[in-house]
Amino acid sequence: MLIFKKKIFALGMILISFFSFSRVNNILANPAMPNYDSTGTIGPFPITNNNCTIKNATILYKVYCSDRHDYSLTIDANYTIYNPNSTLEATILAPFPDSVMCDLISVYSDNPFQALDYEIKYDWDYPEYDQYLSVVYSMILKSNITLPENNTFKLCYYIDYSYIFLSANREEIFYWLYTADSWNEISYERIEYQVYGLQPDYFSDNEYMEIINHTNYISYIWTWNNQSIDVNSVYIGYGSNRGIGTDTLLSYLLIIQTGIFSIVIKTIINKKKKKGVRICTN
Fold first, then answer.
1. Which residues, including other chains, have CB under 8 Å from residue 276's CB and lie 6 or more apart?
2. Using an 8 Å Cβ cutoff, are 92 and 143 in contact?
3. Integer Cα distance of 62 and 212 in angstroms
4. Which of 108, 93, 99 is nearest to 142 (CA)?
5. Which of 3, 41, 1 is nearest to 164 (CA)?
């Protein structure tokens, strides 16, 4: 009976260890909170009260990746904003990958073309918007714009990154969609990754996605046309066969912890045997 109880106890500790790691793994796998290197762009959002609509949002990534060491990236993002109100002065925040990696930033409107002033900010400048900005470290382009009465305004961003290092673990290039709820509505949104050279190892696959093969590149496209945006993000990622991934690392840790528990339990049992400890049952 004593040996049986000890075996049950040891088995229980091992199972607790296993399910403990299983829960952690599930959390780390949640695409809404990356725990590895990621390059993040978050949809722009207003910090002034309004009920404006984005009639058209088109975001184009061009990714140039020749090997598994680094890549270059351009982001061409255009947002047509409709203001149903009287003329409105609005402040827009648009988070992009960190400016340290950036070679060119252009913010403008093209109806007619007009270069727009901007400031580079960071998440700590806006703690009140932590629900939008805490997901990934980014620079924030702050722009003050005038939205004409009962009319549209096209807000455009062009960002060029000549060199981004691929981490030893894995790298994902995100576009985060959850700021959609800061607008009255988004009528149409299209996000395209044109990937030249080395193609991603994986990508977010859902009902809104299509892949188109071209002569020199492959397009990974997500589109919403008068549809509810019910996903947090889309992304492409590099990571297989590149160092120890998160899942592999957790598997190793599970094996190590299980081994430690086994050694501890065996040591306790041996010590009790030497001391002649007995468990009496009535």
1. none
2. yes
3. 14
4. 93
5. 41
CB 76 within 8 Å of CB 122:
no
* 233 beta partners: 176
Amino acid at 31: P
- Token code pair at residue 100: 């340290």
220: Cβ contacts below 8 Å, ≥ 6 apart:
192, 193, 195, 200, 203, 209, 211, 236
Contact assessment for residue 131 and residue 77, using Cβ atoms and an 8 Å cutoff? no
Q: Are 57 and 79 in contact (CB under 8 A)?
A: yes
Q: What pLDDT was estimated at residue 189? A: 95
* pTM across the whole model: 0.71
pLDDT along the chain (282 residues), means of 10: 46 40 26 45 85 94 86 93 93 83 88 90 86 74 94 95 71 86 91 95 91 97 92 85 41 56 63 51 46
Task: Check residue 137 and give its pLDDT.
Answer: 64
